[in-house]
Amino acid sequence: MRVGELDPGPRDSIADLGVRVGHTTLIEGEDVRTGVTVVVPPELPLFAGAHRLNGNGELTGLHWIREAGCLTTPIGLTNTHSVGVVRDAIVAAMVGEADWSLPVVGETWDGVLNDINGFHVRAEHVHEAFAKAAGGPVEEGGVGGGTGMICHGFKGGLGTASRRAGDWTVGVLVQANHGRRSRLTVNGKPVGTLLGSDVVPLPWAEGSGSIIVLCATDAPLLPHQCERLAQRCALGIGRTGGAGETSSGDLILAFSTLRQGIPAAEEVTPGLPRTIPVTMVVDPYLDELFHAAVEATEAAIVNALLAGETMTGRNGATAHGVGAERLIDALARS
């Protein structure tokens, strides 16, 4: 189904920016519903910026991104209690490429469907996800880091979308584990109240989950412009009914895939240039990118919901998939 008014890129995903995505999905017995996703930009380092809508969550490495204005590592997505092992595994994967690294790893909490304290994600699962990372279609829904996630009271998980902005493209990948069903909005229509009452039995107030948003563009943006682009992704969260509740971790990272000759060296070495020329979008033209980021974020959240299939997990808890037919019917009735 179409979300918004802008045209998508060829794949309607973050892969339109040359970004590769790989998953390891762990579904075992009645209690294990988790995994890990790795997101690999086309090259590194890249100019980047971040935004915090609400901070009850984790996206490691942001202090250095804010200080240096660059993304220097691949990105991992997983559950809350597996951030450390995923971070360490990315460090290990980069040995030989860099003397040190501060990986970016984001999390959302999958403890309704998953035995989160069983620590089922291990280093080998991260390496497996790297081996699977590909530039083709991005698998969505209950896969990888999104395996056990719930969004707006339905089965959620990973979703991706892209939108054209003139000669540029903006692509977004979300790990959606947030929102209240009553507030779910699609294309400006409040469909959440029309989608039935099979609400997941949550152990805390509805809306307490989190969302991680990764936003990539091929536009030549400087770090402060990447930060501004990340801020606009929060509007896409809001357009689908997300409110950045107190108990939600809503964290956003945006980066430009245009390397612009940024040297990888962190120290003065022979041949390292003292200056490099860089290009930036003139501020008035950022508006096209802002609109694309808002729509791509909204569409990625909807795609995560559409791809989410009904899942039963720990203690018999069930997250129901919304289903395209059901959602289209609700849109027609709203």
Please describe the structure with a list of short key phrases separated by commas or semicolons.
four-stranded mixed β-sheet; six-stranded mixed β-sheet; 14 strands; about 325 residues; alpha+beta; L-amino peptidase D-ALA esterase/amidase
In short:
With about 325 residues, this protein is an alpha+beta fold.
Summarize the structure in words.
This protein is an alpha+beta fold. Helix content is 23%, strand content 25%. The strands form 4 sheets. It has a 6-stranded mixed sheet with strand order 4-3-12-11-10-9. A 4-stranded mixed sheet has the order 1-2-5-6, covered by helices on one side. It starts with 19 loop residues before the first strand and ends with a helix. The model has no long low-confidence stretch (mean pLDDT 94).
Q: Within the largest sheet, what's the order of strands?
A: 4-3-12-11-10-9
Low-confidence regions: none
The number of E-state strands comes to: 14
- N-to-C CA distance: 16 Å
Might you state the CATH topology name? L-amino peptidase D-ALA esterase/amidase
Largest sheet: 6 strands, mixed
Radius of gyration (Å)? 19 Å
CATH superfamily: L-amino peptidase D-ALA esterase/amidase
Q: Which CATH top level class fits?
A: Alpha Beta
- CATH architecture descriptor text: 4-Layer Sandwich
Question: Could you tell me the mean pLDDT?
Answer: 94
User: Which term fits the overall shape?
Assistant: globular
Helix percentage range: 10-25%
